[in-house]
Amino acid sequence: MQPVVQLINFSKTYQTGEVEVKAVRGVNLTVQPGEFVAIMGASGSGKSTVMNTLGCLDRPTGGQCLLDGVDTGTLDRDELADLRNQRLGFVFQGFNLLSRTSALENVELPLMYLRPNLGSRLQRERAQNSLALVGLADRADHHPNQLSGGQQQRVAIARALVNQPRLLLADEPTGNLDTQTSIEIMGIFQQLNRQGMTIIMVTHELDIANYSLRQVVMRDGRIVSDQPIKNRLDATAELLRLRQEQHAIQLAP
Ligand code: ADP
Ligand code: MG
Question: Which range marks the domain in which residue 237 is found?
Answer without folding.
Answer: 5-95+166-251
